[in-house]
Amino acid sequence: MESPRTKDRYWLHIVLFLLTLGSTVHMGGQLAGRWLVYADRGLGAFLSDGLLFGGSLLLFLTVHEFGHYFAARYHNVRTSLPYYIPLPFVGIGTLGAVIRIREPIPSTRKLFDIGAAGPLAGFVVALAILLYALATLPPPSYIFGMGPGHEEIQQFVERFGRFPDEMLGASDDALTLVVGDTLLYWLLKQVFADVPPMWEMYHYPVLFAGWLALFFTALNLMPVGQLDGGHVVYALFGHKWHARLARIFFLVLLISGSIGFMVDFAPTLEEVNPILRDASWFFLAAILFFFLNRLLDGELRYVAPVLIGIVLIVAVADSFAPGLQSLGYSGWLIWCLLLLYLVRVDHPPVLYQEPLTPRRQWLGYLCIVVFVLCFSLKPLYVVA
Question: What is the DSSP track for 63-122?
Answer without folding.
Answer: HHHHHHHHHHHHTT--BPPPEEEE-TTSTTSEEEEE--B-S---BHHHHHHHHHHHHHHH
